[in-house]
Write a structure and sequence with these properties.
The chain is an alpha+beta fold. The chain has 7 helices and 17 strands. Strands 1, 4, 5, 8, 9, 10, 11, 12, 15 and 17 form a 10-stranded mixed sheet that branches. A hairpin with an 8-residue loop joins strand 6 and strand 7. Helix 1 packs across helix 6. The relative contact order is 0.19.
Length: 322
Amino acid sequence: MKERMPNAEILFLYEAKDTNPNGDPDAENRPRMDYVGRRLLVSDVRLKRYVRDYLLARGEDVWVRTREDGSRTDADGRLEELKALYRQETGKETGAKKKDLDPEFLAWYLRRFRDVRLFGAVLPIKAEGEAKGGTGQFVGPVQFDWGYSLHPVEVYTATIASQFAGRTEGGKGEHGTFGKDHRVHYALIAFWGRVSALRAERVGLALEDLDYLERGLLEGLLEGSTTRSKVGQTPLLYLRVDWREGFRPLGDPRDGLRVRPEGGKAPEAIRSQADYVLEAEGLSERLARYREAVERVRLWQHPGLKVEGLSLEGVRVEEVGF
């Protein structure tokens, strides 16, 4: 019997050591912060970028990307490039003179882009004559909330020097320049995501796509964090709860987690996995409450992560190979 697409909840944890997981361009690229709760923030866009780059590295095309030569384009330009490619591949028109894009083109578009089947997309539609322009939207069946650290963190700033001259006119290019480097010492970052079977059906999301999502999160994070500002990030926990039918009010699974520092350290003084235990009793209680509604749990845990109180008794558990 063909396995059906489930409604699901996703919990994804990773660590960030002496790095900048998601710089804020409006704040001199400092790590994004909730300054009231002193928690590090990471946008869902940043997380999806790791998955998209993982797909690109395996020869797949994605909707949100730069050109092959590294230059950037906007959504209008990207759509026009795809229309030309569609005409070249199929010999058919895309409905360019209609307000709405041709259904055959849209079907081709969805088949081509796994990232759209996962996360959705907004397509620009140009104005024609007196008709106004607009957008066409595919709502992605997989959505993530913003990620945040499960404990308070501190941002530190260092001054870095460059050997390249900052100015070259008037004989002032003889000396190097200085810049600021903003990072966090350590953060255990947690994301909550949700999969909608109904929206999956509308865009043709397949179970194979969810497999790519898992690999994109686990492997994609490692592959993507190989730049100077991103290095130091490692996946620590992936847990997906598939519901038998519908959804259950499990709520944010991160509310059932707590970081307990060891050795009398303050939460801000955590510097590695050795400095804390992740308590998961609250999450276990939530899962036990809806145990009968759980079809299965897919789980991967880093061997170095110390977790206490995570009980999946009575639930079918599939280990994610990684």
